[in-house]
Specification:
CATH topology: Thrombin, subunit H
Strand order of the largest sheet: 1-2-3-4
Order of helices and strands: EEEEEEEE
Distance between the termini: 46 Å
Strand content: over 45%
Number of domains: 1
CATH architecture: Beta Barrel
CATH class: Mainly Beta
Radius of gyration: 14 Å
């Protein structure tokens, strides 16, 4: 049995993020949750080159409170937030970032 291929990235594959917490790979899109109080966001990057599809100044999803977990089902992106006693999971369009449900799970 052949072992799976391991892809190695350079230390500077994606730069300019402050506190990356969550990563999700879907097709050739890498979703990255950047954990900043009152300014957390989800950005998207080309999984092959590391180039940004979105930027911190124009992210896919913005205004999040400590985003860290990401999951995808079809074209729905789920983002968990860990903010004090108001932990919850939001549901977003994975292509546009439009909010589908602010609180898909949680308080």
């Amino acid at each position: 049995m052949t072992p799976p291929q391991v892809r190695r990235f350079s230390a500077n594959f994606i730069t300019g993020v402050i506190q990356p917490e969550g990563l999700l790979l879907s097709d050739n899109t890498l979703y990255l949750a950047n954990d900043i109080a009152n300014g957390g966001y989800v950005g998207t990057y080309n999984a092959t080159t590391g180039s940004a599809f979105t930027t911190p100044y124009n992210p896919l999803i913005s205004g999040l409170q400590y985003p860290f977990g990401l999951a995808i089902s079809g074209n729905n992106l789920y983002v968990s937030q860990d903010y004090s006693a108001t932990n919850w999971v939001g549901e977003y369009n994975a292509s546009t970032g439009a909010r589908l449900r602010a609180r898909a799970l949680g308080q």
